Amino acid sequence: MEALLDIHRLSVEFNTARGRVHALRDVSISVPKGKVVGIVGESGSGKSTLVWAVMRLLAGNSIVADGKITFRGEDVLSFDESALREFRGESVSMVFQDPMTSQIPVLDYRRQMTDILYRRKGLSRQEKIRMAARFMNRVGIPDADDRLRHFPHQFSGGMRQRAGIAMALLMDPALLIADEPTTALDVTMEAQIIHLIREAQTDFGATVMVISHNLGLIAELCDKVVVMYAGEVVEQGDVKDIFFNAHHPYTQALLECDPSHDLKQERHFPTIPGDVPDLHGTPKGCVFAQRCRHASDICQYKRPGEYPIAGGHASDAHAARCHRYDPGGVWKELPKSETPKASTRIDVHVERDAPPLLEIKDLRVRFPVMGRVRALASGISDPHVDAVAGVSLAIRTGETLGLVGESGSGKTTLARAVLGLNRVHSGSIRFRKEELVGLPENTYKKMRRDIAMMFQDPVGSLSPRQTVGQLLSEPLIIHGERDLPLRDAAEKLCDMVSLPRNFLSRYPHELSGGQARRVGVARALALSPALVIADEPTAGLDVSVQGEVLNLMIELQALHGLSYLIISHNLPVIRQVSDILAIMYLGRIVEYGACSQVFEKPAHPYSEALVRGTPRPDPSRRRKLVSIEGEVPSLTNRPGGCEFHPRCPYATDRCRKEQPSPTRLVDGRTVLCHFPLAG
Predict the structure, then answer these.
(1) Which residue of 9, 335, 416, 672 pairs with 67 in a disulfide if CB–CB is 3.0 to 4.6 A?
(2) Which residues contact 285 (CB under 8 A, 6 or more apart)?
């Protein structure tokens, strides 16, 4: 096939205070015209560096040591400033990972989009505005004429990402690059963005490069897949070759680590032992040798070539950089006793007959949306919204409750209410039979010894001015624990979460995402709590690091009898770790019951949409339709009747007029629906 973009033997290095970093080494990738190419790999594999090199946006301390980047036969590395301006935006557009930081917060979308069209000299301002509105409509943003006057902070995360795609498509680019386009989005928004990119590629005839560590996204979207590790391409080929016939040990390990790959509840996640190597030096042998279960002697001292794999699905050659496929090589399998052994499932004891450790009944949390004077002037008698509206649930000792729902459904508000960080309007929260609602702050402080929190952003929740040792000692100091010397206590916590003791002198910015998450786990366990509330404990982590963190949490649960309230929109993870599942929508629990029952046969249409909306790492199971359309309604304008009816494919007139009452099913589940999908 004709290549629109051709990267040939590209090597990129960075000069740093610690020496030169060899970020990319001998990378060769061909991007066929009209196809979708996925770049996949762990953090530190060089995916983003590759994209910045293509866009000529590398930092000032970078050096392109070798290689060529050719776009439509022209050498991108030789472009002057004028050619670069034409290349960026006009020929190649980019959808960035975080739309909130890539879009200008002080300019409305009308100004931002018309500015992008500055090269269209023949268009008047009104024609540019109409064109911007047309593209906003094209990506599924309703009332585009009005929404163009809005600013980025007035859009939800999914809508900001849609607006970013609209801006990227405005100039009708030949190549669209999407860098982690669905990171931190809900499963329903993720599905909509996947379909949106696919439609854009079909309708505009664009070539697309997608960078992601989400294997389900890659399987859903891509025609060709490139697997990167430690700055090298280790395998590439047709999407079916990669997912059904992976040959490189790293690709095989990545696929095994994906929790959506296995639908059984094993309470154990496969991981890849070790870490991505330090790229300040160039490995003599295979870059994956230290973590590879098939490594032989030759892998330690000789760098493998890229060898073709016979029997591929398409004209794109399937190739892997591994000594096992060298037709003239001397690689041999190690004895089985020398290969790493996988850990096994861990069973956690749940005290089913004992009273609940945490019991919540009819909880309501309200927030004011305007002041009293303004409300009186506007004739509004109740200027509040119910972020949590009548929620009831229970957690027993040793039990894990998964709390699932889209952004804005009230999950974090509920968790903060349990911790006493949000004021409760009405209802009851009982912990070990003691009522928490209305407790004075000094009494609540004592309760927080037994209820710990793991925050969504592990680095952001750690003080940048404190070392790991100080951070681990802080909970002990706050609660007056002096029995054990602080240094000894910090070392004990490091051992508990398998973190080297020499990390105690490091600062948060010196930690990887997985290491920072381990520090967060250790801080949460410092006071030996009974209940841990984990808010998105795997957000933004690679699948292998995600598995390490979750295995650690399960091991500690079995060892210490912990109970977990895990908040997440990662349904494959929730399926593996939860005993009970609560699904929230607009502050209400719409389905509540055993996790296995909800996943096997969801009873609420919203639950069904979430379960079906999870992308699978299987390119033969691409979905034809998005499971759920639209966005979560505003709490200030709740729909009448059943609040899910505007997005429900099964809605009737009764659903539009009458609010449903909780229905108890024969299997013990509770569902908030007039017509449950399961009996």
Answers:
(1) 9
(2) 298, 299, 300, 301, 302, 303
